[in-house]
Design goal:
Enzyme class: lyase
Number of strands: 0
Distance between the termini: 28 Å
Radius of gyration: 19 Å
CATH architecture of the largest domain: Orthogonal Bundle
Helix content: 55-70%
Cofactor: [4Fe-4S] cluster
Number of domains: 2
Number of helices: 13
EC number: 4.2.99.18
GO biological process, one term: base-excision repair, AP site formation
Catalytic activity: 2'-deoxyribonucleotide-(2'-deoxyribose 5'-phosphate)-2'-deoxyribonucleotide-DNA = a 3'-end 2'-deoxyribonucleotide-(2,3-dehydro-2,3-deoxyribose 5'-phosphate)-DNA + a 5'-end 5'-phospho-2'-deoxyribonucleoside-DNA + H(+)
CATH class of the largest domain: Mainly Alpha
Length: 218
Amino acid sequence: MTKADKVQFVINTLKELYPEIPVPLDHKDPYTLLIAVLLSAQCTDVRVNQITPLLFAKADNPYDMVKMSVEEIKEIIRPCGLSPMKSKGIHGLSKILIEKHNGEVPESFEYLEELPAVGHKTASVVMSQAFGVPAFPVDTHIHRLMYRWNLSNGKSVGQTEKDAKRLFPREHWNDLHLQIIWYGREYSPARGWNLENDIITKTIGRKTVLDEYYKNRI
């Protein structure tokens, strides 16, 4: 298989498995998505989806959020981890949205990445899922799978993102980043991985990864 064949195989297989693509984080607008993505750093989406209804019942927009203290926010989001940093970020970015953006989440990588606690990955998720702008946010699943599939060298998340954007057609980016996350969770996890269920890695996987897998099975 050429690299182009492999890329097409990934696209076709994922489309077959996930014709409808659920969004992992519950939200109703760009602001609630931004907060949910921020909370998801080093925390499972399941946990975030348990906590956001509690937070959004008190404040689901920047104007209500700034009425709460950082301490009050921290208390609610504590189960998501990193609560001191995340609560300051949520309060701080809500204030900036009101002061600089009329209370709206800006449709711009540049402005999003200026917000406290918002990095490139968070901005990419918001741009793709809230505004439909082509982006390829790379999480641990995508980073792991791009390496397993021999489509990136695994050196850094930044490199994986560059490779994904270079290899996959731009019109597929927003679907693919979600499809790969779901595939990674269901068929190609970091732990408890069964290669027999993982059709993509079994078909196009990096030789060293496959050799290591079989060696460990003996």
